[in-house]
Amino acid sequence: MESPPPPTEPKRLSLVDRLPERDEPWYPAFDDHFRNFTDLFDQGSRSQSTVEQARTYGLGLLSIEGRKSMEPIAERTTTPYHRTQYFITGAVWSPEAVQLRHTAILAKMFATEDGVFSLDDEGDPKKGNDSAGVTRQYCGNRGKEENCQVGVCLSYIRPHPSRYADMVSFGMAMRLYLNEARAADMDHRERTHIPDEVEYEPKWQIGLDQIDRVLPLNVPHQAVVADADYGRVADFRRGLRERKEAYVLGVQPSQTQILLEGEKEPRTCAEVARTLPESAWRKLTWSKGTKGDLVMEVARVRATVSEKGHPTTEEDWVLFERRTNETKAYLAWGLDGLSLRAQVRLVRARWGIELWFEHAKSELGLDQFEGRSWPGWHHNVSMVMLDHGYLMIQRTKGKGKDGKPLPTLPAVKRATEHRVVAELMDRVIADEDKGRREKLAITALEVMGRPPKLTADGHLFVSKDWRDYLDAG
Protein backbone atom coordinates (compact mmCIF):
# COMPACT_ATOMS: atom_id res chain seq x y z
CA MET A 1 0.00 0.00 0.00
CA GLU A 2 1.40 3.32 -1.05
CA SER A 3 2.15 5.62 1.86
CA PRO A 4 0.40 9.01 1.89
CA PRO A 5 2.41 12.00 0.75
CA PRO A 6 4.08 14.00 3.49
CA PRO A 7 2.09 17.02 4.67
CA THR A 8 2.89 20.12 2.71
CA GLU A 9 4.04 23.31 4.33
CA PRO A 10 1.22 25.87 4.48
CA LYS A 11 1.62 28.53 1.84
CA ARG A 12 3.56 31.48 3.23
CA LEU A 13 1.50 34.45 2.15
CA SER A 14 3.30 37.64 1.31
CA LEU A 15 2.87 40.56 3.66
CA VAL A 16 0.76 42.33 1.07
CA ASP A 17 -1.56 39.30 0.96
CA ARG A 18 -1.77 39.32 4.75
CA LEU A 19 -2.85 42.95 5.00
CA PRO A 20 -6.51 43.60 5.86
CA GLU A 21 -8.68 43.21 2.77
CA ARG A 22 -10.19 46.40 1.42
CA ASP A 23 -13.40 46.87 -0.53
CA GLU A 24 -12.02 49.76 -2.54
CA PRO A 25 -11.11 48.92 -6.16
CA TRP A 26 -8.22 51.38 -6.07
CA TYR A 27 -5.81 49.24 -4.03
CA PRO A 28 -2.39 50.89 -4.31
CA ALA A 29 0.19 49.85 -6.89
CA PHE A 30 2.88 52.48 -6.60
CA ASP A 31 5.54 50.46 -8.39
CA ASP A 32 3.40 50.17 -11.51
CA HIS A 33 3.18 53.96 -11.64
CA PHE A 34 6.84 54.52 -10.77
CA ARG A 35 8.08 52.32 -13.64
CA ASN A 36 6.87 55.01 -16.05
CA PHE A 37 9.63 57.28 -14.75
CA THR A 38 12.62 55.03 -14.09
CA ASP A 39 14.46 55.97 -17.28
CA LEU A 40 14.37 59.64 -16.24
CA PHE A 41 16.24 58.84 -13.02
CA ASP A 42 18.67 56.48 -14.75
CA GLN A 43 21.21 59.25 -15.27
CA GLY A 44 24.88 59.77 -14.39
CA SER A 45 27.49 57.50 -12.83
CA ARG A 46 25.27 56.62 -9.84
CA SER A 47 22.18 55.95 -11.93
CA GLN A 48 21.07 52.69 -10.28
CA SER A 49 21.32 54.27 -6.86
CA THR A 50 19.35 57.29 -8.12
CA VAL A 51 16.53 55.07 -9.38
CA GLU A 52 16.39 53.25 -6.05
CA GLN A 53 16.43 56.51 -4.11
CA ALA A 54 13.66 57.96 -6.29
CA ARG A 55 11.42 55.01 -5.46
CA THR A 56 12.28 55.19 -1.77
CA TYR A 57 11.68 58.94 -1.63
CA GLY A 58 8.36 58.53 -3.41
CA LEU A 59 7.27 55.91 -0.87
CA GLY A 60 8.53 58.15 1.92
CA LEU A 61 6.27 60.99 0.78
CA LEU A 62 3.34 58.56 0.65
CA SER A 63 4.06 57.04 4.03
CA ILE A 64 2.94 57.54 7.57
CA GLU A 65 1.96 60.76 9.25
CA GLY A 66 4.80 63.05 10.20
CA ARG A 67 7.03 65.53 8.47
CA LYS A 68 7.91 64.89 4.85
CA SER A 69 11.31 66.60 4.83
CA MET A 70 14.48 64.75 3.88
CA GLU A 71 15.69 63.69 7.33
CA PRO A 72 12.41 62.10 8.54
CA ILE A 73 11.95 60.38 5.17
CA ALA A 74 15.46 58.92 5.41
CA GLU A 75 14.82 57.75 8.97
CA ARG A 76 11.47 56.14 8.18
CA THR A 77 12.83 54.30 5.16
CA THR A 78 16.10 53.34 6.91
CA THR A 79 18.05 55.11 4.20
CA PRO A 80 21.35 56.81 5.09
CA TYR A 81 20.55 60.51 5.19
CA HIS A 82 23.39 61.44 2.85
CA ARG A 83 21.84 59.28 0.11
CA THR A 84 18.43 60.93 0.46
CA GLN A 85 20.05 64.36 0.51
CA TYR A 86 22.15 63.60 -2.55
CA PHE A 87 19.13 62.35 -4.50
CA ILE A 88 17.28 65.63 -3.88
CA THR A 89 20.10 68.17 -3.97
CA GLY A 90 22.91 66.68 -6.05
CA ALA A 91 21.74 63.88 -8.34
CA VAL A 92 21.65 64.50 -12.08
CA TRP A 93 18.02 64.19 -13.15
CA SER A 94 15.70 66.69 -14.76
CA PRO A 95 12.68 67.86 -12.74
CA GLU A 96 11.20 69.36 -15.92
CA ALA A 97 11.38 65.96 -17.65
CA VAL A 98 9.62 64.27 -14.72
CA GLN A 99 6.90 66.94 -14.72
CA LEU A 100 6.34 66.58 -18.46
CA ARG A 101 6.20 62.76 -18.29
CA HIS A 102 3.76 63.04 -15.39
CA THR A 103 1.61 65.46 -17.41
CA ALA A 104 1.62 63.22 -20.48
CA ILE A 105 0.57 60.16 -18.45
CA LEU A 106 -2.24 61.85 -16.56
CA ALA A 107 -3.46 63.83 -19.57
CA LYS A 108 -3.85 60.61 -21.53
CA MET A 109 -6.01 59.22 -18.73
CA PHE A 110 -8.03 62.26 -17.69
CA ALA A 111 -7.86 65.20 -20.09
CA THR A 112 -11.03 66.11 -21.99
CA GLU A 113 -12.14 68.98 -24.18
CA ASP A 114 -13.98 70.62 -21.28
CA GLY A 115 -10.91 70.66 -19.01
CA VAL A 116 -8.97 73.81 -18.19
CA PHE A 117 -5.41 74.95 -17.54
CA SER A 118 -5.40 76.72 -14.17
CA LEU A 119 -2.55 79.06 -13.24
CA ASP A 120 -1.74 80.29 -9.74
CA ASP A 121 1.12 80.70 -7.29
CA GLU A 122 1.58 79.46 -3.76
CA GLY A 123 3.65 80.95 -0.97
CA ASP A 124 5.50 78.94 1.66
CA PRO A 125 6.52 80.99 4.75
CA LYS A 126 10.17 80.55 5.71
CA LYS A 127 12.44 81.63 8.53
CA GLY A 128 15.79 83.08 7.54
CA ASN A 129 17.09 84.07 4.14
CA ASP A 130 19.15 81.06 3.10
CA SER A 131 16.65 79.22 0.87
CA ALA A 132 16.51 79.85 -2.88
CA GLY A 133 14.19 82.71 -3.75
CA VAL A 134 13.13 83.43 -0.18
CA THR A 135 12.48 87.08 0.61
CA ARG A 136 9.77 89.30 2.00
CA GLN A 137 7.04 89.22 -0.63
CA TYR A 138 3.32 88.67 -1.02
CA CYS A 139 2.34 85.26 0.36
CA GLY A 140 -1.01 84.22 -1.12
CA ASN A 141 -1.99 81.65 1.49
CA ARG A 142 -1.40 84.23 4.25
CA GLY A 143 -2.96 87.13 2.33
CA LYS A 144 -0.12 89.49 3.19
CA GLU A 145 3.59 90.15 2.73
CA GLU A 146 5.75 87.66 4.54
CA ASN A 147 9.18 86.07 4.35
CA CYS A 148 8.48 83.19 1.99
CA GLN A 149 9.24 81.21 -1.14
CA VAL A 150 6.72 81.42 -3.97
CA GLY A 151 6.13 78.75 -6.59
CA VAL A 152 4.20 79.36 -9.82
CA CYS A 153 2.08 76.36 -10.79
CA LEU A 154 0.15 75.35 -13.90
CA SER A 155 -2.39 72.63 -13.18
CA TYR A 156 -5.03 70.72 -15.11
CA ILE A 157 -8.63 70.68 -13.92
CA ARG A 158 -11.32 68.38 -15.30
CA PRO A 159 -14.64 69.51 -13.83
CA HIS A 160 -17.31 66.93 -13.08
CA PRO A 161 -20.53 67.63 -15.01
CA SER A 162 -22.74 67.54 -11.93
CA ARG A 163 -20.70 66.95 -8.76
CA TYR A 164 -18.10 69.56 -7.84
CA ALA A 165 -16.16 67.32 -5.42
CA ASP A 166 -15.54 64.74 -8.17
CA MET A 167 -13.37 67.03 -10.27
CA VAL A 168 -9.96 65.69 -11.25
CA SER A 169 -6.92 67.93 -10.80
CA PHE A 170 -3.18 67.46 -11.20
CA GLY A 171 -0.16 69.71 -11.41
CA MET A 172 1.56 70.00 -14.78
CA ALA A 173 4.44 72.40 -14.09
CA MET A 174 5.80 74.24 -11.07
CA ARG A 175 8.73 76.66 -10.83
CA LEU A 176 10.22 78.78 -8.10
CA TYR A 177 9.73 82.54 -8.49
CA LEU A 178 12.69 84.91 -8.12
CA ASN A 179 11.87 88.57 -7.67
CA GLU A 180 14.16 91.14 -9.25
CA ALA A 181 16.26 91.69 -6.14
CA ARG A 182 16.91 87.99 -5.59
CA ALA A 183 17.62 87.39 -9.26
CA ALA A 184 20.29 90.12 -9.15
CA ASP A 185 21.85 88.95 -5.85
CA MET A 186 24.92 87.05 -7.03
CA ASP A 187 25.87 85.87 -3.53
CA HIS A 188 22.38 84.42 -3.03
CA ARG A 189 22.48 82.77 -6.44
CA GLU A 190 25.81 81.11 -5.69
CA ARG A 191 24.83 79.91 -2.22
CA THR A 192 21.55 78.39 -3.41
CA HIS A 193 22.88 77.03 -6.73
CA ILE A 194 20.54 79.00 -9.00
CA PRO A 195 21.51 78.21 -12.62
CA ASP A 196 23.06 81.02 -14.67
CA GLU A 197 20.32 80.80 -17.30
CA VAL A 198 17.58 81.55 -14.76
CA GLU A 199 16.74 85.24 -14.90
CA TYR A 200 14.03 87.40 -13.40
CA GLU A 201 10.62 86.81 -14.95
CA PRO A 202 7.30 88.12 -13.66
CA LYS A 203 4.91 85.40 -12.52
CA TRP A 204 2.64 85.81 -15.53
CA GLN A 205 5.60 85.25 -17.88
CA ILE A 206 6.56 82.09 -16.00
CA GLY A 207 2.95 81.01 -16.51
CA LEU A 208 3.18 81.55 -20.26
CA ASP A 209 6.47 79.64 -20.32
CA GLN A 210 4.80 76.73 -18.55
CA ILE A 211 1.92 76.75 -21.02
CA ASP A 212 4.45 76.71 -23.87
CA ARG A 213 6.11 73.65 -22.31
CA VAL A 214 2.92 71.58 -22.18
CA LEU A 215 1.31 72.71 -25.46
CA PRO A 216 3.43 70.28 -27.55
CA LEU A 217 1.80 67.44 -25.58
CA ASN A 218 -1.55 68.39 -27.17
CA VAL A 219 -3.40 68.17 -23.86
CA PRO A 220 -7.13 68.72 -24.59
CA HIS A 221 -8.54 71.77 -22.81
CA GLN A 222 -11.14 74.45 -23.26
CA ALA A 223 -9.54 77.52 -21.70
CA VAL A 224 -6.91 78.99 -19.38
CA VAL A 225 -8.21 80.23 -16.03
CA ALA A 226 -6.50 82.38 -13.39
CA ASP A 227 -7.28 84.92 -10.70
CA ALA A 228 -6.93 88.71 -10.87
CA ASP A 229 -3.20 88.69 -10.09
CA TYR A 230 -2.74 87.28 -13.60
CA GLY A 231 -5.87 88.52 -15.35
CA ARG A 232 -5.14 92.18 -14.60
CA VAL A 233 -1.93 92.00 -16.68
CA ALA A 234 -2.67 93.09 -20.26
CA ASP A 235 0.54 91.49 -21.56
CA PHE A 236 -0.51 88.14 -20.10
CA ARG A 237 -3.91 88.29 -21.78
CA ARG A 238 -2.25 89.38 -25.02
CA GLY A 239 0.15 86.44 -24.78
CA LEU A 240 -2.76 84.03 -24.45
CA ARG A 241 -4.54 85.53 -27.44
CA GLU A 242 -1.37 85.28 -29.51
CA ARG A 243 -1.31 81.57 -28.64
CA LYS A 244 -5.04 81.34 -29.49
CA GLU A 245 -5.70 80.22 -25.92
CA ALA A 246 -9.24 81.01 -24.79
CA TYR A 247 -9.43 82.31 -21.24
CA VAL A 248 -11.58 83.25 -18.26
CA LEU A 249 -9.53 85.51 -16.01
CA GLY A 250 -10.32 87.44 -12.88
CA VAL A 251 -9.65 91.20 -12.99
CA GLN A 252 -9.75 93.99 -10.43
CA PRO A 253 -13.18 95.63 -10.83
CA SER A 254 -12.07 99.05 -9.61
CA GLN A 255 -9.07 99.23 -11.97
CA THR A 256 -10.09 97.43 -15.18
CA GLN A 257 -11.79 99.72 -17.69
CA ILE A 258 -14.24 98.56 -20.35
CA LEU A 259 -16.19 100.32 -23.11
CA LEU A 260 -19.74 99.12 -23.67
CA GLU A 261 -21.28 99.15 -27.14
CA GLY A 262 -22.97 102.50 -27.81
CA GLU A 263 -21.05 104.34 -25.09
CA LYS A 264 -18.34 106.94 -25.73
CA GLU A 265 -16.30 106.77 -22.53
CA PRO A 266 -14.87 103.71 -20.81
CA ARG A 267 -15.86 102.93 -17.24
CA THR A 268 -14.44 100.59 -14.63
CA CYS A 269 -16.00 97.17 -14.22
CA ALA A 270 -17.13 98.23 -10.75
CA GLU A 271 -18.98 101.26 -12.17
CA VAL A 272 -20.67 99.17 -14.86
CA ALA A 273 -21.77 96.54 -12.33
CA ARG A 274 -23.35 99.17 -10.09
CA THR A 275 -25.50 100.53 -12.94
CA LEU A 276 -26.75 97.22 -14.33
CA PRO A 277 -30.52 96.84 -14.02
CA GLU A 278 -31.76 94.17 -11.61
CA SER A 279 -33.15 92.26 -14.59
CA ALA A 280 -29.58 91.70 -15.83
CA TRP A 281 -28.73 89.52 -12.83
CA ARG A 282 -29.43 85.78 -12.69
CA LYS A 283 -28.99 83.13 -10.03
CA LEU A 284 -27.48 80.08 -11.72
CA THR A 285 -26.94 76.61 -10.28
CA TRP A 286 -23.59 75.59 -11.72
CA SER A 287 -22.93 72.31 -9.83
CA LYS A 288 -23.84 70.25 -6.77
CA GLY A 289 -21.85 70.32 -3.56
CA THR A 290 -21.92 68.08 -0.51
CA LYS A 291 -24.65 70.26 1.03
CA GLY A 292 -26.79 70.90 -2.04
CA ASP A 293 -26.85 73.11 -5.13
CA LEU A 294 -23.99 75.54 -5.74
CA VAL A 295 -25.45 78.86 -6.87
CA MET A 296 -23.81 82.00 -8.24
CA GLU A 297 -25.51 85.36 -8.89
CA VAL A 298 -24.14 86.66 -12.18
CA ALA A 299 -24.55 89.06 -15.07
CA ARG A 300 -22.55 89.57 -18.25
CA VAL A 301 -22.03 92.25 -20.87
CA ARG A 302 -20.14 92.42 -24.15
CA ALA A 303 -17.39 95.04 -24.04
CA THR A 304 -14.03 96.24 -25.32
CA VAL A 305 -11.22 96.48 -22.79
CA SER A 306 -9.62 99.92 -22.46
CA GLU A 307 -6.10 100.83 -21.37
CA LYS A 308 -5.28 104.31 -20.10
CA GLY A 309 -8.67 105.54 -21.26
CA HIS A 310 -8.38 104.24 -24.83
CA PRO A 311 -10.11 101.18 -26.36
CA THR A 312 -7.91 98.22 -27.33
CA THR A 313 -8.54 95.40 -29.78
CA GLU A 314 -9.52 93.05 -26.93
CA GLU A 315 -13.23 92.27 -27.06
CA ASP A 316 -14.55 90.09 -24.25
CA TRP A 317 -17.55 88.90 -22.41
CA VAL A 318 -17.32 90.57 -19.00
CA LEU A 319 -18.83 88.44 -16.24
CA PHE A 320 -19.90 89.94 -12.94
CA GLU A 321 -20.39 87.92 -9.77
CA ARG A 322 -22.42 89.54 -7.02
CA ARG A 323 -21.62 88.45 -3.49
CA THR A 324 -22.87 89.73 -0.14
CA ASN A 325 -20.05 92.21 0.41
CA GLU A 326 -18.41 92.59 -2.99
CA THR A 327 -18.73 92.21 -6.74
CA LYS A 328 -16.10 90.32 -8.72
CA ALA A 329 -15.35 90.63 -12.44
CA TYR A 330 -13.93 88.25 -15.06
CA LEU A 331 -12.91 88.59 -18.69
CA ALA A 332 -13.88 85.73 -21.02
CA TRP A 333 -12.23 85.65 -24.47
CA GLY A 334 -12.53 83.07 -27.24
CA LEU A 335 -15.62 81.49 -25.70
CA ASP A 336 -18.41 83.25 -27.57
CA GLY A 337 -20.26 80.02 -28.25
CA LEU A 338 -20.70 79.19 -24.56
CA SER A 339 -23.80 79.91 -22.53
CA LEU A 340 -23.59 82.04 -19.41
CA ARG A 341 -23.87 78.91 -17.26
CA ALA A 342 -20.97 77.26 -19.11
CA GLN A 343 -18.82 80.36 -18.65
CA VAL A 344 -19.69 80.42 -14.94
CA ARG A 345 -18.52 76.82 -14.63
CA LEU A 346 -15.17 77.86 -16.07
CA VAL A 347 -14.93 80.64 -13.48
CA ARG A 348 -15.45 78.09 -10.75
CA ALA A 349 -13.15 75.47 -12.29
CA ARG A 350 -10.18 77.61 -11.28
CA TRP A 351 -10.59 76.51 -7.68
CA GLY A 352 -9.36 73.04 -8.57
CA ILE A 353 -5.81 74.32 -8.29
CA GLU A 354 -6.47 75.29 -4.67
CA LEU A 355 -7.48 71.69 -4.03
CA TRP A 356 -4.24 70.53 -5.65
CA PHE A 357 -2.21 72.80 -3.35
CA GLU A 358 -4.18 71.62 -0.31
CA HIS A 359 -3.64 67.92 -1.01
CA ALA A 360 0.00 68.37 -2.03
CA LYS A 361 0.60 69.98 1.35
CA SER A 362 -1.61 67.98 3.70
CA GLU A 363 -0.94 64.55 2.19
CA LEU A 364 2.52 64.84 0.61
CA GLY A 365 4.26 67.59 2.58
CA LEU A 366 4.80 70.09 -0.24
CA ASP A 367 5.25 72.87 2.33
CA GLN A 368 7.54 70.85 4.63
CA PHE A 369 10.62 70.69 2.43
CA GLU A 370 13.65 72.05 4.29
CA GLY A 371 16.28 72.04 1.56
CA ARG A 372 17.76 75.39 0.54
CA SER A 373 18.95 74.93 -3.03
CA TRP A 374 17.23 75.66 -6.34
CA PRO A 375 17.76 72.08 -7.63
CA GLY A 376 16.51 70.62 -4.34
CA TRP A 377 13.28 72.64 -4.38
CA HIS A 378 12.45 71.58 -7.94
CA HIS A 379 13.42 67.94 -7.36
CA ASN A 380 11.14 67.73 -4.32
CA VAL A 381 8.23 69.45 -6.09
CA SER A 382 8.55 67.02 -9.00
CA MET A 383 8.43 64.00 -6.67
CA VAL A 384 5.35 65.45 -4.95
CA MET A 385 3.70 65.79 -8.38
CA LEU A 386 4.64 62.21 -9.29
CA ASP A 387 3.10 60.92 -6.06
CA HIS A 388 0.00 63.08 -6.35
CA GLY A 389 -0.54 61.72 -9.86
CA TYR A 390 -0.38 58.19 -8.49
CA LEU A 391 -2.99 59.01 -5.84
CA MET A 392 -5.28 60.63 -8.41
CA ILE A 393 -5.06 57.54 -10.63
CA GLN A 394 -5.95 55.30 -7.68
CA ARG A 395 -8.79 57.64 -6.70
CA THR A 396 -10.51 57.41 -10.08
CA LYS A 397 -10.22 53.64 -10.52
CA GLY A 398 -13.54 53.25 -8.71
CA LYS A 399 -15.19 55.77 -11.07
CA GLY A 400 -17.95 56.50 -8.59
CA LYS A 401 -19.65 53.12 -8.95
CA ASP A 402 -23.45 53.04 -8.61
CA GLY A 403 -23.57 56.81 -8.73
CA LYS A 404 -21.57 57.15 -5.53
CA PRO A 405 -19.03 59.99 -5.21
CA LEU A 406 -15.39 59.21 -5.81
CA PRO A 407 -13.37 58.57 -2.65
CA THR A 408 -11.52 61.61 -1.40
CA LEU A 409 -7.83 61.84 -2.13
CA PRO A 410 -6.97 61.72 1.61
CA ALA A 411 -8.91 58.44 1.85
CA VAL A 412 -6.87 57.05 -1.03
CA LYS A 413 -3.72 58.18 0.75
CA ARG A 414 -4.72 56.19 3.84
CA ALA A 415 -5.08 53.10 1.67
CA THR A 416 -1.54 53.46 0.32
CA GLU A 417 -0.20 53.21 3.84
CA HIS A 418 -1.03 49.51 3.82
CA ARG A 419 1.45 49.05 0.99
CA VAL A 420 4.04 51.01 2.98
CA VAL A 421 3.37 48.83 6.02
CA ALA A 422 4.13 45.75 3.95
CA GLU A 423 7.44 47.18 2.79
CA LEU A 424 8.42 48.22 6.31
CA MET A 425 7.55 44.79 7.66
CA ASP A 426 9.66 43.12 4.98
CA ARG A 427 12.58 45.23 6.17
CA VAL A 428 11.86 44.37 9.82
CA ILE A 429 12.16 40.71 8.94
CA ALA A 430 15.36 41.12 6.91
CA ASP A 431 17.26 43.63 9.05
CA GLU A 432 19.99 42.22 11.30
CA ASP A 433 20.27 45.44 13.32
CA LYS A 434 18.02 45.20 16.39
CA GLY A 435 17.73 48.97 16.81
CA ARG A 436 16.57 49.51 13.25
CA ARG A 437 14.17 46.57 13.54
CA GLU A 438 12.59 48.15 16.59
CA LYS A 439 12.07 51.50 14.84
CA LEU A 440 10.61 49.87 11.76
CA ALA A 441 8.33 47.63 13.77
CA ILE A 442 6.96 50.56 15.79
CA THR A 443 6.35 52.55 12.61
CA ALA A 444 4.53 49.68 10.91
CA LEU A 445 2.41 48.98 13.97
CA GLU A 446 1.47 52.66 14.25
CA VAL A 447 0.22 52.66 10.67
CA MET A 448 -1.86 49.54 11.33
CA GLY A 449 -3.29 51.13 14.47
CA ARG A 450 -1.84 48.37 16.67
CA PRO A 451 0.07 48.95 19.91
CA PRO A 452 3.67 47.76 20.18
CA LYS A 453 4.02 44.29 21.66
CA LEU A 454 6.21 44.30 24.76
CA THR A 455 8.21 41.57 26.43
CA ALA A 456 7.71 40.64 30.08
CA ASP A 457 10.47 43.03 31.16
CA GLY A 458 8.93 45.96 29.24
CA HIS A 459 11.13 45.96 26.12
CA LEU A 460 9.79 46.01 22.57
CA PHE A 461 9.11 42.53 21.29
CA VAL A 462 11.32 42.01 18.22
CA SER A 463 10.87 39.01 15.97
CA LYS A 464 11.79 37.95 12.47
CA ASP A 465 8.49 36.11 12.09
CA TRP A 466 6.09 38.49 10.33
CA ARG A 467 3.09 36.68 11.85
CA ASP A 468 4.14 37.84 15.29
CA TYR A 469 3.94 41.46 14.17
CA LEU A 470 0.66 41.14 12.33
CA ASP A 471 -0.86 39.50 15.41
CA ALA A 472 0.61 42.09 17.77
CA GLY A 473 -1.87 43.71 20.14
Automatic annotation (TrEMBL):
<dbReference type="InterPro" id="IPR012337">
    <property type="entry name" value="RNaseH-like_sf"/>
</dbReference>
<dbReference type="InterPro" id="IPR039365">
    <property type="entry name" value="IS701-like"/>
</dbReference>
<dbReference type="Pfam" id="PF13546">
    <property type="entry name" value="DDE_5"/>
</dbReference>
<protein>
    <submittedName>
        <fullName>ISXo8 transposase</fullName>
    </submittedName>
</protein>
<feature type="domain" description="Transposase IS701-like DDE">
    <location>
        <begin position="52"/>
        <end position="291"/>
    </location>
</feature>
<dbReference type="InterPro" id="IPR038721">
    <property type="entry name" value="IS701-like_DDE_dom"/>
</dbReference>
